[in-house]
Amino acid sequence: MWKMRMAQVIIFFSLIFLHLIVSPICAMPLAPALYVFGDSLMDSGNNNFMPTFAKANYLPYGVDFPKGSTGRFTNGKTVADFIAEYLGLPYSSPYISFKGPRSLTGINYASGSCGILPESGSMLKLYGLGARKLIMFEIGPIGCIPSVSRKHLHKGDCIEETNQMVTYFNERLPPMLKNLTSSLPGSTFVLGRSNSLGYDAIKNPSKYGLTDASNPCCTTWANGTSGCIPLSKPCLNPSKHIFWDAFHLTEAVYSVIASGCLNNRSVCTPVSIQELVKM
Ligand SMILES: *[C@@H]1O[C@H](CO)[C@@H](O)[C@H](O)[C@H]1NC(C)=O
Ligand SMILES: *[C@@H]1O[C@H](CO)[C@@H](O)[C@H](O)[C@H]1NC(C)=O
Ligand SMILES: *[C@@H]1O[C@H](CO)[C@@H](O)[C@H](O)[C@H]1NC(C)=O
């Protein structure tokens, strides 16, 4: 969920495993592995195996994903999936997965409705384990999600007081990430400015080919303020909606965020992923 106490960190591990995974038949991936941390915006199925009510392992979740419902809290791919595709890696598989051996090309530790440890502490730990290229995404404009905006009788308008609280958190990220990059040799910490991009998409959906910036695409519990009702029919055109359910975004929006971060150094700053992989 697009919640205040949560943030997402994507990790590209350093080059130690590169020679193990490159085979002459496959195109060489642009990074050896993709490790994903976060909440339901990045979860690829961990919650399926956890004792939690935050689950998305039923249709219409996954209705546009090649494998159907997987535990992703959206209709299709997440930002992490789009980044994996760009890197030439398989989608990072859920950590809590009973299938197959542990992957060398990345693991997804994200879990819906989780929180974060004190953020710079977590990142020092990851650096200690060998992570060198890290992207941290801002928390999104939570005051705009239907579960928040509708409960306050704003009829889908953003609640700016809530957005302001998120901004207090986000404003502290750039100096912290700069500090980490300059004090940890060989590291690059990148900020993903998903808040400003997401807010702009909500305010100006047509700029991004979207038409509906207030209604969840799926039919949700609690009159548009909660998760999708199992096996309910989603809207006809998810690719025109910002919101998939009352907390989460559609694949269409995740695609906008991912391609911004891949190519545009105003979105992922100071370097885009395209530049990051060449460093
Ligand atoms: C940067 O790091 C130094 C030393 O670790 C610390 O004293 C300072 O408060 C940090 N600044 C920010 C903005 O995080
Ligand atoms: C359900 O939500 C809609 C749109 O926000 C609102 O107009 C309607 O009154 C709500 N219905 C109930 C029963 O609360
Ligand atoms: C890059 O992102 C910024 C901020 O979202 C936007 O204003 C700009 O138009 C984008 N540039 C391109 C080439 O898409």
From TrEMBL:
Signal peptide segment: 1-27
Location relative to the cell: Secreted
Keywords: Hydrolase, Lipid degradation, Lipid metabolism, Secreted, Signal
Annotated Pfam families: Lipase_GDSL
Main location class: secreted
GO cellular component: extracellular region
InterPro entries per UniProt: GDSL, GDSL_esterase/lipase, SGNH_hydro_sf
Gene Ontology biological-process annotations: lipid catabolic process
GO molecular function ontology, one term from the record: hydrolase activity, acting on ester bonds
Family: Belongs to the 'GDSL' lipolytic enzyme family.
PANTHER family (UniProt xref): GDSL ESTERASE_LIPASE 7-LIKE (PTHR45650:SF14), GDSL-LIKE LIPASE/ACYLHYDROLASE-RELATED (PTHR45650)
Name the UniProt record assigns to this protein: GDSL esterase/lipase
